[in-house]
Design goal:
Chain A: One of its GO terms (cellular component) is cytoplasm. The complex is a heterodimer. By secondary structure, chain A is α/β, with parallel strands linked by helices. Helices cover about 25% and strands about 25% of the residues of chain A. Chain A is globular. In chain B, about 30% of the residues lie in helices and about 25% in strands. The chains are: A alpha/beta, B alpha+beta.
């Protein structure tokens, strides 16, 4: 299974993402944002966390218009897999690959802690190694993770099983405590918590490991 | 030629920063501030002949996220 981790100026979780994917058995290329093409045989594109372009204008807005993002959108439209974590989730909403937007946290504070995360669906390659209702222990570190979508969009996400993860506590003002959502075909996942920071005993939790292991396993056999 | 773009959160989208500013004004003793919405102003220096429609396209594609924001263009 071949993965591409995208690097923007200001990305800071790119290396962690590459380590987590390699640990799960993926063959990982790191791709610079000015490239306008992905490696031809790539199965998964991972957009890491960080502060791409200094969060100027809106988080993820400049990155979403960089050359590599056109290739990522085309990859997703061909049915390719995309994982966006934290700033990567913000980039995915800005490209329109995922609905809604991420606003400033309701408490206005940067939230950096390990949170209880509920698995809302196992019907995706990202979550099928979990059990629905499982409570995972995964770190968050964000200032703009307050998920917003209008009522119609929220109802659609809910009714079609596209909410992947929710916080098991009120964390940042997210509507319905949403922490991560899927695209209509289930192949694009955006989430604020950092599964790549929960893949080693030294991290204090290995609950993120199964996300990568499941994904690599599914895509390797696909 | 200058254009000015005002970007505001749409009605119905909670504005935690505006709420914090409202609270701070109250703490300073300014009574009667019933609501605060915080937005941004973007000034563009444009070549002569740039049309409002082109600025509108800039807003749609980058300057505003129309999922959560509305925009208003001021041009001479």
């Amino acid at each position: 299974m071949k993965a591409a981790v995208i690097q923007f100026p200001g990305s800071n979780c790119d290396r962690d993402m590459a380590v987590a994917l390699r640990q799960a058995g993926a063959d990982v290329d790191v791709i610079w944002h000015k490239d306008d093409a992905l490696p031809g045989d790539v199965d998964l594109v991972a957009i890491p966390g960080g502060f791409s372009f200094g969060d100027y204008l809106r988080c993820g807005a400049i990155a979403a218009n960089s050359p590599i993002c056109r290739a990522i959108v085309a990859h997703a439209e061909r049915g390719g897999y995309v994982l966006g974590v934290c700033n990567g989730f913000q980039v995915l909403t800005e490209t329109g690959l995922l609905p809604g937007a991420l606003l400033r946290n309701a408490g206005l504070k940067f939230v950096c802690k390990t949170v209880p995360l509920r698995v809302e669906t196992t019907q995706s390659a990202f979550t099928d190694t979990y059990v629905q209702g499982d409570i995972l222990s995964v770190p968050v570190a964000h200032h703009d993770g307050n998920y917003f979508a209008d009522d119609a969009t929220l109802a659609r996400l809910q009714d079609t099983g596209r909410i992947a993860f929710s916080y098991a506590e009120h964390l940042n003002g997210s509507r319905n405590d949403i922490a991560g959502i899927l695209s209509a075909n289930g192949r694009v996942l955006g989430m604020m918590p950092h599964p790549e920071r929960a893949v080693d005993e030294a991290h204090g939790s290995t609950d993120g490991q199964r996300l990568f292991a499941g994904l690599v396993g599914q895509l390797a056999t696909a | 030629m200058k254009a000015r773009v005002h970007v505001m959160l749409k009605d119905g989208v909670l504005d935690p920063q505006g709420a914090a500013v409202k609270h701070a004004l109250g703490a300073l003793g300014f009574d009667g501030v019933e609501g605060v919405r915080q937005g941004k102003v973007i000034e563009l220096d444009l070549a002569d002949g740039t049309t409002e429609a082109q600025v509108g396209e800039m807003c749609e594609k980058l300057l505003a996220n129309t999922v959560i924001e509305s925009y208003r263009i001021e041009m001479p």
